[in-house]
Design brief:
With about 300 residues, the chain is α/β, with parallel strands linked by helices. It is built from 15 helices and nine strands. The protein binds beta-D-ribofuranose (BDR) and calcium ion. Beta-D-ribofuranose binds near residues 14, 127, 169 and 241. It comes from Glycomyces niveus.
């Protein structure tokens, strides 16, 4: 079993990741930390608790950063981007939560958890802006050598989804993304838009995992994405980004194309803020610091979701 902590900003695809992380027989979700991103932190934490309750999981939830690391503003107001924000502010269509968040800050929890020798095998999965992870590394720099593996959804090698250059999670807190990628964590796997868009889900996929309560809730969330995701309009297939990190934990053969690269994040470009730079030049000055997934097997991804949700 792969044990992991999930740091997320629960919107619809993070919620599907929570369902899959709780239910997949090969995975053990140890704790969830929340970070502001898709919507304000109180909605993110509420959505997270709703998703865990629906999945019947007694997993501790610690609330984290309400603001990006450096910026108090963003180059484009979030509300312009989030056509979806009403849905995300009202519980994602999930029943009200009965459980409550734990006392204590997510950043302190992450520090204590990964500094604990008993957790030397624990993977950190991040599916929101990297604010909490950056703050934990600032609080305790030794953490970089204590996190055995970081698997994150963020960035794009091709076009972004907020701007031509930037994907949402990196764009929402570019300084945090850069701090985390340059911290020296030994095993970093990036799941960018290139990978998630290579294996989008359709209405037929939803029907395939509808036979359980959790599967039906996941199917509703994916259908919502089919209706609202701009990239789904032309193709009738929607990228479901965040669960792909967990599919990789359970099926390390998920990615059919990946590169080792030196990666960094643009923190000052007028048009390129939040862009992921993937340097694969053989003569590049810096050594590789991440593996970047570029393409995923749609069959393996569907199989993972079926295993988890039915
Ligand atoms: C990422 O942005 C968020 O809206 C999704 O949950 C995902 O983590 C995709 O760009
Ligand atoms: Ca997310």
């Amino acid at each position: 079993t792969v044990r992991f902590v999930l740091d997320c900003d629960t919107g619809s695809d993070d919620a599907v990741a929570i369902f899959a992380g709780v239910r997949h027989p090969g995975l053990e979700l140890v704790a969830v930390t929340t970070v502001s991103g898709n919507v304000a932190i109180e909605h993110i934490t509420d959505n997270t608790l709703r998703a865990l309750d629906l999945a019947g999981a007694d997993v501790p939830v610690y609330e984290g950063a309400a603001r990006p690391l450096v910026r108090s503003d963003l180059p484009v107001p979030r509300r312009v981007l989030n056509k979806d924000s009403d849905f995300q502010k009202h519980g994602l269509g999930l029943p009200e939560a009965v459980s409550a968040k734990r006392e204590g800050h997510a950043v302190e929890f992450l520090r204590d958890c990964f500094m604990d020798e008993a957790n030397a095998d624990l993977t950190l999965v991040a599916t929101g802006p990297l604010t909490n992870v950056a703050l934990a590394l600032a609080l305790e720099p030794r953490l970089a050598s204590r996190i055995p593996r970081l698997v994150l959804m963020g960035g794009a090698h091709g076009n972004g989804n907020v701007t031509a250059a930037a994907e949402f999670n990196f764009w929402a807190d570019p300084e945090a993304a850069e701090a985390v990628l340059s911290a020296g964590i030994r095993d970093v796997v990036i799941v960018p838009l290139d990978a998630t868009h290579s294996a989008p889900l359709t209405a037929a996929d939803c029907a395939a995992f509808e036979s359980t309560t959790v599967g039906a809730a996941a199917a509703d969330l994916v259908r919502h994405r089919l209706e609202t995701d701009r990239s789904a309009q032309a193709t009738a297939a929607a990228p479901v980004h965040d669960p792909m990190c967990l599919a990789y934990l359970a099926h390390p053969d998920l990615f059919t194309e990946a590169v080792e690269a030196h990666v960094s994040v643009e923190t000052s470009g007028a048009r390129t803020l939040g862009e992921l730079l993937v340097d694969t030049r053989p003569w590049r000055p810096e050594p590789a610091n991440a593996t970047v997934a570029l393409r995923a097997s749609a069959a393996v991804y569907r199989e993972f979701l079926r295993e988890a949700l039915t």
